[in-house]
Amino acid sequence: MNRNDAVRSIGMKATAWSVSQLTKYIKNIFENDWQLTQVWVQGEISNFTRHSSGHMYFSIKDDKSVIRSIMFAGNNRGLQFIPKNGMKVIIKGYVTVFERDGQYQLYAQEMIPDGVGNLYLAFEQLKSKLKQEGLFDELDKKLIPFLPKGIAVITSNTGAAIRDVLTTVKRRNPLIPVYVIPATVQGVNAPGEICQAISLVETKCAHLVDVILLVRGGGSIEELWAFNEEIVARKIHECSIPIVVGVGHETDFTIADFVADLRAPTPTGAAELVSPPLHELNQGIIDRSHRLQDSMHRIINRFHERLAYMQNSKVLTKPELMFTERKTLVDWLTTQMQNAIENKVEKSIHQYQLLNQRLDDLSPLKIMGRGFSIIHKIKTQEQQQEKELVLSVKQVKVNEQVNVTLLDGELQCTVWGIQNGKKK
Question: I need a surface site. Which of 38, 64, 131, 261 has the fewest CB within 10 A?
Answer without folding.
Answer: 64
